[in-house]
Amino acid sequence: MKLKDSFHPYAIVTIVFWSLAYVFTRLALQYFSALSLGFLRYLIASLTLAVVAVLFKIKPPAKRDWGWFLLSGAVGFFLYMILFNVGSQSVTASTGSVVIATVPILTALAARIFYSERLKSIQWIAIGVEFSGILLLTLMNGAFTMNRGILWLLVAACALSAYNLLQRRLTKSYSALQASTYSIFAGTAMLAVFLPESMAELRGAPGVQLFYIVILGVFCSAIAYVSWSKAFAKAPRTSSVSNYMFVTPFLTTLLGFLLANELPDTSTLLGGAVILCGAFLFHFRGNAA
What we know:
The protein is mainly alpha-helical. It has one domain (about 5-115, about 145-250). It has 13 helices and no strands.
């Protein structure tokens, strides 16, 4: 497969920016509340994509598809952000990362049901290897907690899986730019219920916090989600793209070390190595088998 026809570069760009988002989100939450940060992040993303939409004269979706874009915005941005934030309040970050790491598994299972997409046996084995790497990375220090927050995070994982499936559907009829732009527009409109609180916090925000929001909105949202949709448009299977999400916790740790001086421990290095081996097995040995 030629590089220009490959989904891998687009998926990698997204995962890098999403991993970076965890680092900048932690920094931004030192000042902003979680819900305000969520709205401001996607407000910046929407404004960025609005400019792009005007410059490239992208067409609005057909009326018959408005419902699909509203649903995509609801599950991928509005519901996911609220569910994730509520769940994260009562579990450790390690526990949260394990639960959200089920998204590629849920996406693969759902794609098989709704799109009749099948994975080879070696690819299911690779998914197991990758998930075991997540467990090793997060649980080696005994950080897993059991409480109702896990239920909220499981629903959040289901919402993100549903978003992946919807993007797969939308990119069959629309460009990646259209699919992600109008989904983000819809999600931001719903998140506007947090506008008053967000504006109150924004008025006294330090300059560095505004910088964090711009990075989160432009790079970790606008560019990342367009690239994610582009990957779905080019990939042979939905799970081929969503599988990259297994790499996020490991890459987030490395970026945290580079940008926030958060030194990775032994469990991170061992878990990361297992995850990368599983990813190699899925994408290269799985496609060759």
